[in-house]
Write a structure and sequence with these properties.
The protein has a single domain, classed as Rieske [2Fe-2S] iron-sulphur domain (Rieske Iron-sulfur Protein, 3-layer Sandwich). It is built from no helices and nine strands. The radius of gyration is 12 Å and the shape is elongated.
């Protein structure tokens, strides 16, 4: 599973949706942060880096492209 963000208009990013702390699924994107509510980890919606632990590793990036208004992963 993946989480897709749009940090700026027309700029889409995709990351694994599995938190690197204990493997919970991230549940929300708010205020430019990807949030895991299991233990409170927060990740950057721009690059997947850790903003707030307990996670210490970033979310893994996934390739995403936009063509004719459709997002394609991979």
């Amino acid at each position: 599973m993946v989480v897709v963000t749009q940090p700026a208009a027309g700029d889409f990013k995709a990351f694994t949706s599995t938190c690197t702390h204990w493997g919970c699924q991230v549940t929300a994107v708010e205020n430019d942060q990807i949030i895991c509510r299991c233990h409170g980890s927060r990740f950057s919606a721009t690059d997947g880096s850790v903003i707030l632990g307990p996670a210490t590793l970033p979310l893994g990036p996934k390739a995403v492209t936009v063509k004719d208004g459709q997002l394609t992963l991979g």
